[in-house]
Amino acid sequence: MEKRKYQRLALRAQQRVLSLVEPKRIDKNIVISKNVSAEGFCFRSNRPYQKEDLVLVYLQDHFLADVELEMPRILKSGNYVMARVMWSKPVSCELDPFYEIGCGFIKKEESDVDNINLFTQLINQDTVERIALS
Question: Which domain holds residue 44?
Fold first, then answer.
C-alpha cells in the first residue's frame, strides 16, 4: 500500500499544459486530468513528456479549491501552477494509445531564477494569445 502525505482526489477534466520545447517555442497541449493532490497531479496526454520537464498547468477553479491546503507554498499565479514531471509511462489502448504523466507542484522555496523566469514567460505568452483570441 502506498503512503501519501495528502489524499489524491479523482478529478477528470480538460486542462491546458504549456511547456518550453525550444528557447522560443511554447508547446500547448490539452490533457485530461486523472487526479490531484496538494502536492501534484496526474494527467493523460496523447504525447509523452520527459521526467524533469517543467510544465505550466492552468487548473480549473474546482481543482484549486481541492488542493488549497498547500497552495501558499506552491509556485502559482491565479490558476497557473508550475509543476515538474516526476514520471511518464505509455498506456496501451487498442483504439487510442496515450501516456500517463505524474507531476509534482514546484514549491516556492525550491524555485530558482530559471524556474521563475520560465514560469513568467509561459504565463505571459499564454495570456497574450488568449487576449488576441478574444
Answer: 9-133
